[in-house]
């Protein structure tokens, strides 16, 4: 029988490896920008067309490469970062495995131009599908320029699975930010389809954050800094009053590399304890510097997951450092012992200048042991009479307890309540509902009673109403008396542009106004009581969160996000009419029994269940 195991061709092996390293255009952007940083570049320019599907080009002014190095850079596992196994435990560079360029070249048409500092000429290399097409000397500026054209051109299945240009551009912007934030000393720029999105000059970390997220962050940032033998912590957290309802701007950088770590995130969240509402999340930009020997970054192809040697110690340092910074800048309550000693500051001298000695009034006839029987026939207040009456009623009920419950049971049985809320409402305008703890609505049904979650019920109503508005292509709009401008970061601006038609269909009236800015002229008619800027920001935050957690099309996502932001919340007091209308509209929905996220809106309790509880 013939042997069946054989080595894969290099082109096939590279395509398989590319599936791990290059998942979408943003993955290639990350690899190329990190290579530029490793080359010592002080200026990096990123140019993309059609969200990276047509072109991704990175131009840097780094050290450049020789002709031999340029050719070797496209070989698998060819790297300048590692010479021996021990080097794996002293890595300070962004890349080190030597797979990125080989993987990219396997699934794209790549052109590389590079020239070392001091060389007279550079070298130009063209590779297509891992096959070398040309290599020649060329005139080029010092540094490196690499262009990736027609990504996944030879893997059509992967190309077909790419999302819309707006979605892919947002991923590119995310990767751009993750590289640009921890390297403020390097100038970065991003151009998409001949339009400039970012132009970040070299500076400090605070200037870099303001350049990416807007000048409004100047007053939102709280500096964090601590230097220990185990970890050095530096960066900023956002003041609690600017916390967001979703996990938005949360960045951890380990030795200038973006990482994700739920354990460390919990440390920051714990530092904000009692400063944030339960449904809000802290925003932060924190850079951790540790000895490379104490971490393992080679456990994930994208290197975003890291193992620490002493994770608990880092957790403790991080939590205490953030908490200390919040206290230093008077964000968190702090103990001031000097102030404690003067809590009861009193003026030394009265305003009129006359000091009066305090006097005590004494009743000489008062006898604490004398017991007087109260006389209800005279000088008796209404409250005393009411108390007496209540006590008498209680004893009367106690004596007739059995008779009372029998009558009550007969009364309940006589109340024939139709389960169909519409029929019930038409039969009697005296339908009584009860609000429990300003969160739930209680109502009778034939077999017992039902409990309705008022927030979940309203979310369901709004969700179906918004979906219906999409079919009509327009909802009623309440125009703003004074239009408001909302400045967004580049990623959110691109998201609003993508969703603009659907946002208009909901009832918003918005228009572009300069770079990364929209003007809100109107809001949906039934949301006029909400702040228009906060309403749009909340819509975007929930939309992004739903994108990560739920698989739904953008209209369902928008409807779900809008319903969550505008629904009545737990704690709101409702009138009898409002409760009846809410139940009426809920049972008119196609799916009244669950919220848009699948949580129940209604639960019922039968009389049998109640009887069992009282007969124990």
CATH level-4 homologous superfamily of the largest domain: MutL, C-terminal domain, dimerisation subdomain
Q: Look at the helices and sheets and give the structural class.
A: alpha+beta
Q: How much of the polypeptide forms β-strand, as a percent range? A: 15-25%
CATH-derived topology of the largest domain: formyl-coa transferase, domain 3
Which geometry do the CA atoms define? Answer: globular
Highest-level CATH class of the largest domain:
Alpha Beta
Architecture (CATH level 2) name of the largest domain: 2-Layer Sandwich
Arithmetic mean pLDDT: 80
Number of helices: 19
Report, as a whole number of angstroms, the end-to-end distance. Answer: 76 Å
Low-confidence region ranges: 334-345, 404-422, 424-430
Rg over CA atoms, rounded to whole Å, is 34 Å
Fraction of residues in H or I helices: 25-40%
Describe the strand arrangement of the main beta sheet, using strand numbers: 5-4-3-6-2-1-7-8
- Give the biggest beta sheet: 8 strands, mixed
Number of separate structural domains: 3
> Quick one: how many beta strands?
22
Oligomer state equals single chain
